[in-house]
Automatic annotation (TrEMBL):
This is Short chain enoyl-CoA hydratase /3-hydroxyacyl-CoA dehydrogenase. GO terms for biological process: fatty acid beta-oxidation. Pathway: Lipid metabolism; fatty acid beta-oxidation. GO terms for molecular function: (3S)-3-hydroxyacyl-CoA dehydrogenase (NAD+) activity; enoyl-CoA hydratase activity; isomerase activity; NAD+ binding. Residues 299-474 form the 3-hydroxyacyl-CoA dehydrogenase NAD binding domain. InterPro entries: 3-OHacyl-CoA_DH_NAD-bd, 3HC_DH_C, 6-PGluconate_DH-like_C_sf, ClpP/crotonase-like_dom_sf, Enoyl-CoA_hyd/isom_CS, Enoyl-CoA_hydra/iso, NAD(P)-bd_dom_sf. Its main location: other.
Amino acid sequence: MKQAPKHPVRLERQGNVSLIVIENPPVNALGAAVRRGIAAALNAALSNDKTDAVVIAANGRTFPVGADIREFDMAPQQPSLSQLCSLVEDARKPVIAAIQGTALGGGLELAMAAHYRIASKDARMGLPEIKLGTLPGAGGTQRLPRLIGPELALDMMLTGSQVSAGIAAEMGLIDLVTSNDLRAEAVAFARSVKEPRPTSQNRTHLSDGSAYMATVAARRAQVKMELGADALAPNKIIDCVESALLLPVETGLQVERSAFEDCIASRESAGLRHAFFAERAAAKFPEAAEAKPEPVDRIAIVGGGLMGSGIAIAALQSGFAVTLVEQGESGVNAALERIGAFYERSVAKGRLSEAQGAAALTHLQLTNKLDGLGEADLIIEAVAEDFDLKAGILSEIGSLAKPDAVIATNTSYLDLAALAATTGRAANTIGLHFFAPAQSNALVEIGVHDTASPQAVMTGLGFVRALGKTAVRARVHAGFGSGYIGNAILEAYRHAADLMLEDGATPAQIDGAMRSFGFRLGPYQVADMSGLDIAYARRKSKPRDPEARYVEIADKMVEQGWLGQKSGRGYYIYIDGQRQGVPNGDVLKLIAEHRAKLGITPRKFTDRDIRDRILLAIVNAGARLLGEGVAARPSDIDTVMIHGFGYPRGRGGPMMDADATTPSIIASRLSILAPEEPTLWGAAPVLTMLAQERQKFADLNTA
């Protein structure tokens, strides 16, 4: 990574205009050194009699994208961003912000504090603080309503979405959009303005008080209905905008500061910030020290089922040329129908125009022959999860692929090293474990076996990033039965749930407890959606520990033909293809008979019991993943759970959640963790479990 210069801010002059130039790569974050530099440069420019106006600009690809989030958990450093913005707004000479790339969060707050704003045509702006469980804390909640009105301001802050420079100009956020040299245009613009124009003095958009108060009330009601009355950050944002309508700006800024501090201190914001840093930590692969990604233009996918078609859609959406190979003419037609249906739905819902959908399909080549694989830079095998089938396909791929092509298998639990060996070029073979549905799920686990080359791993990582997905490295090696991080966690999650199901809980109760915890769906709803036969085949193909407690309920359901949504009946009954089922009374009867046969007296579980036992199972599995070296860091497990399984993002992930909520996790690092690992990557480095807590879960695993 390019190092920041010693002085991340410098002052330049172009005649009667002073330029404050920020250079703090990679994203010009507004850390303490940058803030001090801007303040010093501004004071110097204002004290120079030859300066008539000041332009704030940035080198590199972007205007500041925000504050340095790491400072949120540190002692305050002067000047704060709020103080800097006040200094800019109070300047006695015009200050112009020149925006390129993105101006996000604190970067946009700095721009709004300037008296005028000019942006390059391709620039984008936004206030995404809501995604970190907080709000703009440097005057953004007070200045944005004054620039664009309360309604549009609430839209931007409550969604965290970005707007283009053109839209921003229409809204009144930007004064001028240019496709010419931004710096030159900004200097020319600065020479054309004579007086400062403090944003805080602008009440043009706040004049219709009664109508805007009605808007505020409507938004508050909407947030309560959709997110609940205790949704902290959204309600605080509404409070702040209401303050902008009713109070002097000085008082509104005090309300904003108090609201910001409340949000930062919240558990949700801590969890969201942890998730933010966890994703960035996951992107740091050790192979980066030895290799860089090779360019990938054309990919090939062998297997056009649900997974293969989903991967093809994701690649087409990202601009790749795709060759999709499926067996026989009927298989090719089925794959084309799946992909075509996706684009038809996308057009019908307004996500794509007909022209965009048609254009994407022009980059797709469908065939039932493997001989076209030699043109692909990356070949992904995505056939059914059967070792012999995959090994045969991979052997053919290895014989046809060009010498420098990377080969990937989408296996989720088969022996990756053994499959890689069948290609005849194991070093060039990796795992790319997409999570379903591949076209929309953001997670891909990159499987790295012992002989995989850094070049192949980094090329796979580059491809996943180009898809806009989050990659997590999994060191997959012989002897670790679950293969990847996600599978090991899922098995532990489901096993804990199944034990409680056998001991007295119902599917609906367990699902309800996990939904109230924050999951969109409970484990048995997910099982019905995925198909019970898929997990059944996996269980039957793997050796089982004869000493471990095994719950046969799901097996008995499959043997009855109750496969979930695909058969209209699983843990729930689905009438006329409905996605929302009602509890299946026959399953409850089957469970009762099963308990009676085993001599189990049903016991009661509270929702808290259910949540705690599942969390404990997940954390135990996570500790094992770290001990085996499958996961590199605890936050990688959190990232997999958030993106792969819908773990509530506001909780930060199970490893952080356990540290934050389970007193039985002790604060000592496992020896496998590097001592220099920043604690920032995990509010809790993964910790060992107390013996008595291990015993609690062990008791559930004994017959």
